[in-house]
Specification:
Elements lengths: L1 H14 L13 H5 L7 E6 L3 E5 L4 E6 L6 E2 L4 E5 L2 H29 L5 H26 L2 E3 L4 E6 L6 E2 L4 E7 L4 E7 L11 E6 L4 E15 L4 E8 L11 E5 L5
Helix pairs in contact: 3-4
């Protein structure tokens, strides 16, 4: 009987649930997520302003200047179209406006002699207004014959060639501003717990082999859910003519404690 009781006790002990062993200590989630502040991230220099000028009309280019790599001033004409037809439309609109004004003046004189009604005078005045609108349209079309630079900078690319025929809206010339470039980075979104606007750090530019001081200016309002990063932009603290848009390097932050 004692042996049976002993066997039953052993079986009961084996069927009892085992106590869960404590999980070995591992770096906490917060600690694992808190990436080191000195983790290097890639930095890209981007222009303060950039644009691709497009054709405002269909036609043949007669001039395309300056060439890629050359400077351009704000308001400088960078492209011209052959515009004999728009000029003819403007001249025709001018003639129609002159004719409408003469007719209107004549109706006013006839009205003073009681030989024209008020309605005739108003219709003549409406014809003058219509001719003025047509002239404005013709001048606007003629204005598309010249393409001016919206800001000072450099020409970086031609999308067409001189004397080439282009369609309305076709890209013509790409321009970047000559202002101090900005620095754009994708940093871990977990850095938002300590990374703030005004934070200063350095960037090492590969093309020049030098280090430059920058200051965080703007933090994007959206985190990329896939990469868990966020775009931030910074300003260079000093002008340096050797820094050009498109250069890249590495930025290293030192977290403020």
């Amino acid at each position: 009987m004692k042996r049976i009781a002993l066997v039953l006790a052993v079986l009961l002990n084996c069927s009892a649930p085992l106590a869960a062993e404590p999980r070995p200590a591992t770096p906490g989630d917060a600690a694992s997520k808190a990436l080191a502040a000195d983790t290097p991230v890639r930095a890209l220099l981007v222009p303060e302003q950039e644009t691709t000028l497009a054709a405002g009309m269909s036609g043949r280019l007669t001039e395309l200047e300056p060439r890629p790599g050359e400077r351009v001033k704000k308001g400088e004409i960078v492209a011209r179209f052959e515009c004999s037809e728009p000029q003819a439309r403007r001249d025709m609109a001018l003639a129609e406006l002159h004719s409408a004004r003469l007719a209107h003046d004549g109706k006013i004189r006839l009205q003073g002699l009681q030989s024209a009604s008020e309605l005739e005078v108003e219709l003549a005045a409406a014809a003058v207004t219509k001719a003025q609108a047509q002239l404005a349209v013709a001048k606007a079309q003629l204005g598309q014959c010249r393409v001016a630079a919206p800001f000072s900078g450099w020409v970086v690319k031609w999308h067409v060639k001189p004397f080439q025929g282009v369609n309305l809206g076709a890209p013509l010339i790409e321009i970047v501003s000559n202002q101090r470039p900005r620095v754009r980075l994708n940093v871990p979104s977990l850095w938002l717990s300590w990374l703030k606007t005004g934070t200063r750090f350095d960037i090492d530019i590969e093309e020049t082999g030098k280090r430059y001081a920058v200051q965080l200016k703007q933090i994007n309002s959206r985190v990329d859910p896939v990469s868990q990063t966020i775009v931030v932009e910074a300003d260079l603290l000093k002008d340096d003519p050797e820094l050009l848009p498109g250069m890249s390097g590495t930025a290293v932050f030192t977290r403020q404690k």
